[in-house]
Structure prediction request, 949 residues.
Amino acid sequence: MEKSCSLLIHFDKGTPALANEIKEALEGNDVPAKIDAMKKAVMLLLNGESLPQLFITIIRYVLPSEDHTIQKLLLLYLEIIEKTDSKGRVLPEMILICQNLRNNLQHPNEYLRGVTLRFLCRLNEVDIIEPLIPSIMSNLEHRHPFVRRNAILAVMSIYKLPQGEQLLVDAPEKIENVLTTEQDQPAKRNAFLMLFQCAQERAINYLLTHVDRVSDWGELLQMVVLDLIRKVCRTNKAEKGRYIKIIISLLTAPSAAVTYECAGTLVSLSSAPTAIRAAANTYCQLLQSQSDNNVKLIVLDRLNELKSSHKDIMVDMIMDVLRVLSSPNLDIRRKTLDIVLELITPRNINEVVLTLKKEVVKTQSGELEKNGEYRQMLIQAIHSCAIKFPEVASTVVHLLMDFLGDNNVASAIDVVVFVREIIETNPKLRVSIVTRLLDTFYQIRAARVCSCALWIIGEYCLSLSEVESGIATIKQCLGDLPFYSVSEESEATDSSKKTPQANSITTVSSRRPAILADGTYATQSAASETVFSPATVVQGSLTTGNLRSLLLTGDFFLGAVVACTLTKLILRLEEVQPSKIEVNKATANALLIMVSMLQLGQSSVLPHPIDNDSYDRIVLCIRLLCNTGDEVRQIWLSSCRESFVKMLSDKQLRESVEIKAKAQTSFSQPDDLIDFYHLKSRRGMSQLELEDAVQDDLKHATGEFVKDENDANKLNRVLQLTGFSDPVYAEAFVTVHHYDIVLDVTVINRTKETLQNLCLELATMGDLKLVERPQNYTLAPESSKQIKANIKVSSTETGVIFGNIVYETSNVLERTVVVLNDIHIDIMDYISPAMCSDAAFRTMWAEFEWENKVAVNTVIQDEKEFLDHIIKSTNMKCLTAPSALEDECGFLAANLYAKSAFGEDALVNLSIEKQSDGKLSGYIRIRSKTQGIALSLGDKITLKQKGGS
Prediction:
């Protein structure tokens, strides 16, 4: 079994040093060789070797050495070696060690005294410590502060031993005298810590006696004071009024660590608005004064906790929190925006949006590398603000539309989605948005942004001028027709047959709006050269129309969107244009564009022909323009927008449900005691204490103090580890809390004999790690013992804990082993349902490399029932809108999402079909960034999908 030591040293087990070599080096006079030999001896002892032959050599040749490094290594050696025999008695040779320690405690060198006193803090053998007590106490008055500091720590550790109070009867009194006269701040801190842990009343008396001087104490002592206040107030809540003033005075301390701890202590002790406001102000000041990004992230987490429990107070701090956006770190900015978006109210929305607009303008400078990502975050934040408060949309929508042609495609997509939602929810802005969109449409370079912008143009160009402008804009961005020359194509084909490297070049022109010096618009023509070759993709220059450039790269999905948009505009033109000639002319031009796109898609100038879906869509548009009925007109001009409106309403409904789910609902019992502060005597109570009394009464009344714990759920977590017929019965209560697993194991001796050296040995499989080493216990006949084991979790993965109980009895010479049942750690303990946008889901689905495909195998015959069962079994959130899951069609597809306690994402896509025999078939696909989630979640679904519990 490995031994514990206060120093961890790397040791290569592949090349163990021989004890004889170490012995020879220790007997020599070469100091560096002795140091190296002592290091080897310590490493061997840490790795399980006993080396009994070295003890006398070290006593003879190492103890007399005056070298400080050798003396420190000697103390490490003495810390590791066994000092007692099998019966717990101190070995006789330890008398030599005791004499050496006494000499060191009286040595003229301060360093040797200090490190020896520090070593005594780790000794548990009373027989060794007892002769050293006078020397230890004499060092409390040493002239050097280093010695005094360690002497105080040694007194504290000895006093905390089981027999420590008998060894040092008057230790608290002496330490209190030292605290009164001590000038060295670290030594003073150690003295106060000793009183805090060993004689709490003396520490409290000293603190209350020097209340006015606490703000002048050093940082280390102030931190211990805060620990004392937290401990006292937890045990006796009625005492917190005496300490609140001390905490308030420490909020202005020069140390950032003290102010941070002080704010946390204030929040934990008081819920009064004055206290919460003071803590929030302190956190905001730390955000501005600290340059470390890790500190800012931690402080933002504390502000996020305050936002959850004291939202009304945090609303007033929103502008202070927004100042953190000056940090260049994206994680800090993202966390800041997340906090701010939940604190927006009608009172502060204008200030918040104005700040976000300024930040958007700053991103145009291009000085920082990640300006595009930051701009995308700001656009999403502004989008959320405009949805919650439509009246601010008019102040931001035109600014954001300048970014439709942004090089960062994600930002441009966010802008166009924002514009699409605002134009529906804010009818007053429709005309100005459409006009601005038509003016800036030629700047758009991304196909997805173009598709969404074309949909907006087709749906919201309602007046005659808007319809005509929309058709004209699309024609300008497409350029001159046809998209290629038939003669040029044939020449290119002929020349390629003769010489494979030959290319044929034709010149095409396009037009786009240009702004003249007087501010008016004019049409400017641009020429570009396009290379036609059967072996290469036709490239469109950036100077041509954006739609033309994208079409010439083979994006015929965009071509189908163009055809649909033109069809809607022509159908609407028939309603608003009285002149049939103009309508027929526009229809002919639209048909010419569509036919040209079909010819381009079926020609040989592009390496890939047009896909069937796009071809069918364009052909459908052509047929509609040639022969349109009233029912078809109604579908194209009304049903599309109605579906969009329904989608927005579903989205708002889901968001409202999420907000209600986040709201904490608590209940109080009818017979709960409420202590009305109005009936109390207010004499001697500060305003803060009065506010705190009010808040406590409110919490009692609303049931916030009531813990929602179900005893039945507790019993479900009790696992039987051994059988009823085993001589030792064991069961474990498993508590899972984020990164920690606590096993509370109850061991019962069912025999009539005393079990000696009983040890609970555990091992783990998966990303689990044991924190503590097992200890040996002695168990009396028919008695029980509670043993706790802490296990750290590093990732979301199904893990297994296994082990055994080993013990000895007086009758049997060999050790008896009882094998324990395995404990399976469920992945569901780490996964919680979460929300994300459809775009974010698709992005993560494309990026994540691990996928687990599980075939559907269930006795459930209803699609929705099976979906609900999977959601319940996996503890995930269904992102698909309820309206999309309505009706019976025999098919169902849904996306599920969850986040782990470690911030990992879990994505699930469920696609099922109902067969003719009534059974369900299909697949459940799981994707994640790590293999553990994908495999563990797949195993869980395989186990649960049949409909079992």
Remarks:
- Residues 488-493, 495-512, 514-544, 705-711 have pLDDT under 50 and may be disordered.
- Residues 829-945 form a domain with the TATA-Binding Protein fold (CATH 3.30.310.10).
- The two ends are 42 Å apart (CA to CA).
- The longest strand covers residues 504-515.
